[in-house]
Amino acid sequence: MAKRKLKKFAEVASFHNCFFLSFEEARDNGLPLKGKWHKEYFKNNNPIVLELGCGKGEYTVGLAERYPEKNFIGVDIKGNRIHTGAKTAVDNKMNNVAFVRTRIDFIEACFGANEIDEIWITFPDPQPQKTRERKRLTNMMFINRYKKIMKEGGCINLKTDNEPFCDYSKEVAMENKFEVLDSTNDLYADVSLRDEALTTIKTHYEKLFSAKGFKICYLKFRV
């Protein structure tokens, strides 16, 4: 198992679509591509969409396949997870996909102001303990970080199996006067949501939780 992980780490380091940002780099200069993703990596001006805590990158790659007119970047701290999506993108010559291995706390060191159009947060750890509220990815501390890299009016999408976490996230959005565009605590039963990507692209965790009978929640709001 350890050898397999090491092999994946080595491959991720060699992939042209993968980048790593350490604590020291985040503290000092940030990612060299910060503010330059359009010009130096994607070489177009298409919208950039982030998936935070992307895991194996199923959503990043799935969205990129469906929307070739947009660019997609998955962010996760675990290199052995990113390997799956990154290799798929390399093997299929997908030029609108990239991955960044770093902590989401360092997101401002990866992207410049107004560089990001939209964010997806797919099945994050809900951090249910009250004492860990600050670690929830829809806490205002994190949202304020996202706002610094997003274009005005950019949207944040959340998919989760944890209903209390979805309700909490909606409360955060409403308390801060963000426009809630979509909200449901049972995505697959809600016929009002017609976006194909919401129900056809499934992460490893979505498949796992759905198989166990958990309802999938979805929230979209504009910041």
Number of strands: 8
CATH architecture of the domain at 1-112: 3-Layer(aba) Sandwich
Question: What's the helical proportion of residues?
Answer: 25-40%
Globular, elongated, flat, extended or rod-shaped: what is the shape? Answer: globular
CATH topology of the domain at 1-112: Rossmann fold
Radius of gyration: 17 Å
Structural class: alpha/beta
Topology:
Elements: H1 2-14, E1 18-20, H2 23-27, H3 37-42, E2 48-52, H4 58-66, E3 71-76, H5 79-91, E4 97-101, E5 116-122, H6 140-149, E6 150-160, H7 163-175, E7 179-184, H8 196-200, H9 204-211, E8 217-222
Parallel strand pairs: 1-4, 2-3, 2-5, 3-4, 5-6
Antiparallel strand pairs: 6-8, 7-8
Helix pairs in contact: 1-5
Describe the protein's architecture and organization.
By secondary structure, this protein is an alpha/beta fold. It has a domain at 1-112: Vaccinia Virus protein VP39 (Rossmann fold, 3-Layer(aba) Sandwich), CATH 3.40.50.150. The chain is 37% helix and 22% strand. It has helices at 2-14, 23-27, 37-42, 58-66, 79-91, 140-149, 163-175, 196-200, 204-211, and strands at 18-20, 48-52, 71-76, 97-101, 116-122, 150-160, 179-184, 217-222. It has an eight-stranded mixed sheet with strand order 1-4-3-2-5-6-8-7, sandwiched between helices. The N and C termini lie far apart (42 Å). The model has no long low-confidence stretch (mean pLDDT 94).
In a nutshell, what does this entry contain?
Helices cover 37% and strands 22% of the residues. It is of the alpha/beta class and 223 residues long. The chain has a domain at 1-112: Vaccinia Virus protein VP39 (Rossmann fold, 3-Layer(aba) Sandwich), CATH 3.40.50.
